[in-house]
Amino acid sequence: MAKCDICGKGVHFGNNVSHSHRRSNHIWNSNVKSVKCKVNGASKKMHVCTNCLKSGRVERA
């Protein structure tokens, strides 16, 4: 899974805990999209999380 090129957000690891308190491994993938962005006047394809897109940290090409 890709990491966000802006904030570095990526995969989170942890445990699923059942009602009987048995634990199993779990992976939470962050919502990272491949987007064309403007970087120094040129368009470049980057991996950006939706939180960075929504907040306006990235200008789309």
UniProtKB/TrEMBL annotation:
<dbReference type="InterPro" id="IPR050096">
    <property type="entry name" value="Bacterial_rp_bL28"/>
</dbReference>
<dbReference type="InterPro" id="IPR034704">
    <property type="entry name" value="Ribosomal_bL28/bL31-like_sf"/>
</dbReference>
<dbReference type="GO" id="GO:0006412">
    <property type="term" value="P:translation"/>
</dbReference>
<protein>
    <recommendedName>
        <fullName>Large ribosomal subunit protein bL28</fullName>
    </recommendedName>
</protein>
<keyword id="KW-0689">Ribosomal protein</keyword>
<dbReference type="InterPro" id="IPR001383">
    <property type="entry name" value="Ribosomal_bL28_bact-type"/>
</dbReference>
<dbReference type="InterPro" id="IPR026569">
    <property type="entry name" value="Ribosomal_bL28"/>
</dbReference>
<keyword id="KW-0687">Ribonucleoprotein</keyword>
<dbReference type="GO" id="GO:0003735">
    <property type="term" value="F:structural constituent of ribosome"/>
</dbReference>
<comment type="similarity">
    <text>Belongs to the bacterial ribosomal protein bL28 family.</text>
</comment>
<dbReference type="GO" id="GO:1990904">
    <property type="term" value="C:ribonucleoprotein complex"/>
</dbReference>
<dbReference type="GO" id="GO:0005840">
    <property type="term" value="C:ribosome"/>
</dbReference>
<dbReference type="InterPro" id="IPR037147">
    <property type="entry name" value="Ribosomal_bL28_sf"/>
</dbReference>
<dbReference type="Pfam" id="PF00830">
    <property type="entry name" value="Ribosomal_L28"/>
</dbReference>
